[in-house]
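Task 17 of the worksheet. Students: predict the tertiary structure of the chain below and write it out as structure tokens. Keep your answer in the requested format; marks are given for formatting as well as content.
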Amino acid sequence: MMNENEIINAIRDGADRYEELVKRYHVGLIIHSEQLVGGRDDAEDIAQEAFVRAYLQLEHFDSDKARFSTWLYRIATNLAIDHLRKQKHKVQVADIELLAEATMPAYIEEEEKLQIHKAVTGLMPPEYRKAIEAYYWHGKSYQEIADEAGVPLNTIRTWLRRAKLQLKEELS
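Model answer:
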């Protein structure tokens, strides 16, 4: 199985391999989009548009700056934010998906951003904070976080679930 950078290089060289990236990320991208906009149909449209935009801009993708999946999710997040603006829905500050710096909507006030960062910094135990930052701010997978922390994968799942509960309580 080729890694995403090998597939991207093959596509840039003219190979018809983009479908491999779509198959790899489509389910997760739809789920991510649905968490942001709340509707499955809208989420599917956003995910499709994100794949189209990513394909059209693939020449500008820089694998030294981010993983393809991170870049793709950023595109989808921007599309979801645009969709919410058009629908005039307010994004809830407590929405954990908006914690990532890269996905922070421009219309959330600086004060709210500081409140979110403060809440993340105050997570206890500190492992919860590290897990949240690694997953949402650095785009690492659960497995990558587990490997770096030297703990089982299920421990990371537990930490993130408990951290989200703490954050919802703090930000509500």
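Marker's comment: The CA atoms of residues 35 and 97 lie 8 Å apart. The chain has a mean pLDDT of 82.
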